[in-house]
Amino acid sequence: SLDGWRTMFIWPHLGNTIFNTLVVSTVASFAVVVLSYAVAHVVVRTNAPFRRFLDLLAFSIHGVPGIVLGISLVWFSLYLDKLLPFNIYGTIWPIAIGFTIVFLPFGTRASTAGLLQIHKELEEAGSISGASNWYVLIKITFPLLLGTFMIVWLWTFGHVFRMTGLPLMLFGSEVVAGYTVAIRIVIFSILPSWGMSNAAATLMGQNLGAKKPERAEKSVWIAGHVNMFFLSCLALIFIIFPEFLVGIFSKDPKLIAVGSQCLRYISFCYPIYAYGMVMVQAFNGAGDTTTPTVINFICFWLFELPVAYLLALILGFDARGVYLAITLAAGLFGVVGIFLFRRGTWKTREV
């Protein structure tokens, strides 16, 4: 029955719920971008003795169970209520803090990879010319990292907005738990792929700047082939041994069954999604940030959400419909990325 959905659309608090979701998604996305760059800058550009520990600390959240993080945030909020003149507990801000912590590992990997591709001689040249450190950051470093920042922001915003798992919640808490474990494994597995994508974007910018679009195209395709091979190997492991991987995080048989099903479904899109990651990021390297934004919006918002609703609730696929929608959206992302890259309109851009 669709009575629940009809009730939701006439619910008097629906507007506030959507507004709060947008606020949490936006705040968490900006926080991840800022903190990720701060960590990456300390790790890559300084000789601080604690830089390796800071890098490890930012990444260690993958080893913290969600329930532990949630309880910690509750106690942290209650502690802050004693120190501050206003209340934190019971508001949306602990949720925003939690999402920032969860997605910080991805942001730090992407920002570190992007910063490593920028030779520090560019910054040193600005400093020698008399520019202050802030001026060098604003005029040299940040423009070169704009593509990375946008990818981190959009990726975080989309995942935070969808982390409520609304269609999945209709099928029970076990489905939500299994989905959460599977998505954590997926996020962890594609971190190296984001590094390859950032490298492709850097090569794209360098070769276009040298007026060698053919070499730029070749370097992007090589990165795409390498990324496809890497994610295909992971997909094979996830398809054959999903129960073992999900079982590392939980011994609940029902959760393992649900999480394994989710992981197996999503893995089928890895080969084509690998190309999409590289091709779309290459547009950022060419100075075109509009095309990646449009591709992400169309594939993961205009396509994925309606298809998930159609498959899960109307056609009766239940949770499998949500998993299939994610797989189809990622596949569409790869196909569109390859198609637009092969058109070659990026070759006319000046870097």
How would the blueprint of this fold be written?
Blueprint: H1 3-9, H2 14-45, H3 51-59, H4 66-83, H5 93-116, H6 120-128, H7 133-144, H8 146-162, H9 166-169, H10 173-189, H11 191-209, H12 213-240, H13 242-247, H14 253-267, H15 270-285, H16 290-314, H17 319-343
Give a verbal description of the structure.
It is globular and about 60 Å long. It is mainly α and 351 residues long. Helix content is 81%, strand content 0%.
Please summarize what this structure is.
The protein is 81% helix and 0% strand. It has 17 helices and no strands.
In terms of DSSP E residues, the strand content is under 5%
| Unreliable sequence segments | 164-170
Mean pLDDT: 82
Query: How many strands in all?
Result: 0
Order of helices and strands: HHHHHHHHHHHHHHHHH
| Integer-rounded radius of gyration | 21 Å
**Main sheet overview:** none
Shape designation: globular
Structural class: mainly alpha
Give the helix level as a range of percent.
over 70%
In DSSP terms, counting alpha (H) and pi (I) runs of 4 or more, how many helices?
17
Oligomer: single chain
Q: Report the end-to-end length measured between terminal Cα atoms.
A: 55 Å
